[in-house]
Design a protein that fits this description.
The chain is mainly alpha-helical and about 425 residues long. It has 18 helices and four strands. It folds into two domains: about 110 residues, D-Maltodextrin-Binding Protein, domain 2 (3-Layer(aba) Sandwich); about 240 residues, no CATH class. α3 links the parallel β1 and β2.
C-alpha cells in the first residue's frame, strides 16, 4: 500500500468514526436492542409478581407436599393455606380480589380420583402456566394413587417421545432458521447499500467542491479510489465488530437476567435462536466480498456524475442488483436446493445475499461456499479494473453525464 493511499484511507476512516452519526448508530443499536429485551421482561416481571404468589388449600393432606416442587418449576410461589374451611376460602377470595394474592388452588379427593382441580385467580393465566400447573397436579395425584415412580408416569402423561429421521439431504423449513437467514440477508442488503453509497457521496463531494483536481495532482486516481473504498470498508468492519462484541456481552450477561425475569420463557429455544460463530463468519465473508464489488461500482457512478440528482439516476442499475436478490430471498430460504435458488446464488452480484441465505438455511454445501468466495474475488478484480478506468477519466470530467458509448470509450482510452 502506497503512502498516498494510506493517507486517503486514514482520512476517510477517521473522518467517519469520529462523526456523531457513527457513534450514535454504533452504540445506539446495541442499547436499543438491550432495551427491547430488558424493558418488556422487566415490566412482565413486575406485573406478574403478585400473580405468581398463590396459596394451596389441600384437603387431601398429601398432594401439596408432593406437588410443591413442580408448582415452583411452573413459575408459581405456592404456600399451604392455614385452614381449609369455608371461611378461609372466602378470605382467600377477598385477597385475590384486592390483588394481594395471585390466586389459590383447591385440592380435594376429586383431584386424587379424577384430576379435578379448582383454581381461583386474579387474571387469566397463560396457556403455558395453566397446562404446566394442571400437569404437575395430575401427575402427582396419579403417582400417589398408583404408588409408582413419578418419572415413569410423567413420561407417559407428557406424550412420550417423537424421534424424526429424514432420508435425503432436504431439510425442513423452520421458523428459527428462516428468521436467521432472512435477517442476515436483509442486514447485508442494508449495509452494502449504505456503505457503498458513502463511497459514491465521498467522490461526489470532492468532485463538486473542486478539491479533486488538487488531490489527483499529488497521487494517482487509482490510489484515491482504493483509499476511499478501503477506508469506508474499514468503518463498516469496525461497526460490525462492535455490534458482534456487544451481542456476545448481551448474551453472556444480559440474557440470563432477562430469562430470570420471565420464568415462562424457554431458555433452550432462545439459545437455539441465537446465531453462532459460523453464522458471523459467513456474514463477514459475504459482507467483505459484496462491499468491494458494490463500492467499486458506486465509486464509478460518483466519478461519472457531477450532481446528486445525476447520481441518483445513474445508480439505478446498481441498486437493482441489490433489490433483485432481496425479492428472491424468501423463496431461496424456503427451497435452498432448487435449481433456481442455486443458479441465482452463483450470479456474482447476487451471491453475497442469496448464497448467505442458502448457507444459513442449510442448502449450500461447503464446496459451494468456497466456490462462491472464489467467484466473488474474481468479480472484485474485474469490477476494480473496470471502475478504475472509469474513475480515472470521470473524476476530472464535469458537465453532462456520459452515455454508454462514451463510457466504453473511457474504458478503452484509460
Amino acid at each position: 500500500m502506497s503512502a498516498t493511499m494510506w493517507a486517503v484511507l486514514k482520512r476517510e476512516y477517521l473522518q467517519r468514526v469520529r462523526s456523531k452519526w457513527f457513534i450514535a448508530a454504533t452504540l445506539g443499536a446495541p442499547i436499543i436492542f438491550l432495551g427491547l429485551m430488558i424493558i418488556p421482561a422487566l415490566m412482565a416481571s413486575q406485573g406478574a409478581e403478585n400473580e405468581r404468589r398463590i396459596e394451596v388449600v389441600d384437603r387431601t393432606g398429601v398432594l401439596f407436599q408432593a406437588a410443591a416442587p413442580g408448582i415452583g418449576e411452573v413459575g408459581y410461589e405456592a404456600t399451604l393455606a392455614e385452614a381449609p374451611d369455608p371461611a378461609a376460602i372466602d378470605s382467600l377470595r377477598a385477597r385475590v380480589e384486592r390483588g394481594d394474592l395471585g390466586g389459590f388452588l383447591i385440592l380435594d379427593q376429586e383431584t386424587l380420583s379424577r384430576g379435578a382441580i379448582t383454581f381461583v385467580a386474579e387474571k387469566q393465566p397463560s396457556s403455558i402456566r395453566s397446562f404446566g400447573l394442571r400437569q404437575v397436579i395430575v401427575q402427582t395425584a396419579l403417582a400417589i394413587r398408583m404408588q409408582d415412580d413419578l418419572a415413569d408416569v410423567a413420561g407417559l402423561l407428557a406424550g412420550g417421545e417423537f424421534d424424526l429421521e429424514v432420508l435425503g439431504n432436504s431439510q425442513g423449513f423452520e421458523d428459527v432458521t428462516f428468521i436467521q437467514a432472512y435477517l442476515g440477508a436483509f442486514f447485508l442488503y442494508m449495509s452494502l447499500l449504505l456503505f457503498a453509497i458513502q463511497v459514491m457521496r465521498s467522490v461526489l463531494e470532492e468532485k463538486r467542491d473542486k478539491v479533486v483536481e488538487i488531490i489527483v495532482s499529488a497521487m494517482r486516481p487509482a490510489d484515491l479510489m482504493l483509499g476511499k473504498i478501503l477506508g469506508v470498508g474499514l468503518v463498516g468492519l469496525t461497526q460490525l465488530g462492535i455490534w458482534v462484541i456487544s451481542a456476545i456481552l448481551i448474551y453472556s450477561s444480559g440474557l440470563p437476567a432477562v430469562m430470570a425475569m420471565n420464568p415462562e420463557a424457554n431458555l433452550e429455544m432462545v439459545r437455539a435462536a441465537i446465531p453462532g460463530m459460523g453464522y458471523v463468519g459467513l456474514l463477514l465473508l459475504y459482507f467483505i466480498g459484496g462491499y468491494f464489488m458494490y463500492s467499486g461500482l458506486y465509486a464509478a457512478v460518483g466519478a461519472m456524475c457531477s450532481t446528486d440528482e445525476e447520481a441518483q439516476q445513474a445508480q439505478f442499475p446498481v441498486i437493482m442488483l441489490l433489490v433483485v436478490p432481496i425479492v428472491f430471498v424468501t423463496g431461496v430460504i424456503q427451497d435452498p436446493d432448487s435449481t433456481l435458488s442455486v443458479g441465482l446464488s452463483f450470479f456474482p452480484f447476487f451471491t453475497p445475499i442469496l448464497m448467505f441465505a442458502r448457507a444459513v438455511a442449510g442448502g449450500a454445501a461447503a464446496w459451494e461456499i468456497a466456490a462462491s468466495a472464489v467467484l466473488m474475488a474474481a468479480t472484485v478484480v474485474a469490477v476494480a479494473w473496470l471502475a478504475g478506468r472509469i474513475y480515472k477519466v470521470g473524476i476530472l470530467m464535469t458537465g453532462k453525464r456520459p452515455t454508454l458509448p462514451e463510457l466504453v470509450r473511457w474504458v478503452r482510452e484509460a
